[in-house]
Amino acid sequence: MAAKVTFFQVGTGDMTLIRLADTLVTTILIDSRIRQAADNPDDDTPDVGRALRERLQWDAKDRPFVNAFLLSHPDQDHCAGLRNHFWLGDPADYPDDGKDRWERRILIREMWSSPLVFRRSSKNHILCDDAKAFDKEARRRVTYWRNYRIAGDGNRIRIMGEDNQGKTDDLGPILVKAGQTFSQIAGENLPQFFTSHLLAPAPHEDDADLEEDLTKNESSVIMNIQISPSAYSQTKTKFLVGGDAEVLIWERMWSHYESTPEVLEYDLLLAPHHCSWHTLSWDSWSGKGENAKVSWDARYALSQARNGATIVSSSVEILDDYCDPPCIRAKREYQDILDEVDGWFSCTGDLGEKACMDFEVRSDGKVKLLAVAAALAGAVPSSVAASIPPRAGKFK
After folding, report:
1. Adjacency order of strands within the sheet including 266-270
2. How far is CA 273 from CA 18, 112, 119, 252, 324, in A?
3. Which CATH number does the domain housing residue 369 bear?
């Protein structure tokens, strides 16, 4: 099976599934937004919960699972519906075996969580109930590891980035520091199929002003994931993800990696903060319009597109107005970046009633769109699209 990346139509929010090319089809879910309307069979909102389950593996007890779940940051548009669709607790207590198959909550074999991002977010925002539930489960798993120094599926956790004041110093075997790479998922070493370079967050408690600015600037986990189309491929697809990271963080990314820009290179980019202008500028789009100035350092950080790259905005349709996010000006900047490498920009909000868009990882490192709603047919270059089926309705 070829590796695939799926972007779900969740409005202006994020939900992305990676399926690796190993024989077990290892899965990584990055964020999840499943709105209440998506669970209503009488509503036209795409049923992304069903679409997700249809793309997962099921265990010997017929329970759906993801091998890893990364929460980039605890905003509601990245974790809504978490309690309804995922089991957050000891796997031994899983209660859904008697339910309809498609209503069983999804098991998370390994959580990827950043306590530093949670701390920064909670300083300026009241966490929603789903974010609090994720945090509670992450703490349970950390406690489990501290007690036993080992954990099996459903109790595993990996910490993304050090915390302040040495709070993660004793978690070395399950801690990934900013700047490090890792290839292990839920106890399996998969370097032939997957490697991830963690770029952020990093603590800056030695600089109180910087730490405060990072807290205010939508701190998120940022990583550049390398995905192999097969066990024997020498070419990797680089997938850059950054949650809602805004302009200050991307300026710092460029300051840190300007001399090694290949760290930021990508074949596939999930447009940060749902194609927000605040990712690329300190100026307000609604306030200054076309007079808003681009931060060139942030743009350089996000301009490291490789030939034939694809950028996806996980948002509602991007209109020529003063909304932000998504922002038409940010879309134009990304399109300019892609024009230089013969790339393609897409938006999940253009999918009509379709629940998601699936990309296949190709042997040349590029990604190929496998299925797309009719609304996108005229916008998809032949090098990207494999087929253009009729618009699909809601999953039943």
Report:
1. 181-182, 194-200, 222-227, 237-241, 266-270, 305-313, 344-347
2. 19, 19, 19, 17, 10
3. 3.60.15.10
* Host domain of residue 204: 4-379
Angle, CA of 382, 384 and 389, to the nearest 5° = 75
pLDDT in tens, 294-332: 999 999 999 999 999 999 999 999 999 999 999 999 999
Which secondary structure element, helix H or strand E, spans residue 133, and what is its range? Answer: helix 129-148
Regarding pTM above 0.85, the answer is: yes
CB 239 within 8 A of CB 5: yes
Place of tokens 């799926």: 6
The residues, any chain, with a CB within 8 Å of residue 20's CB and separated by 6 or more, are 3, 26, 27, 28, 190, 193, 194, 227, 228
Tens digit of each residue's pLDDT (9 = 90 or more) over 243-291: 999 999 999 999 999 999 999 999 999 999 999 999 999 999 999 999 9
In a domain, 142, yes or no: yes
Q: Which letter, b or e, does each residue of 273-294 get, where b requires 16 or more Cβ atoms within 10 Å of its Cβ?
A: bbbbbbbbbebebeeeeeebeb
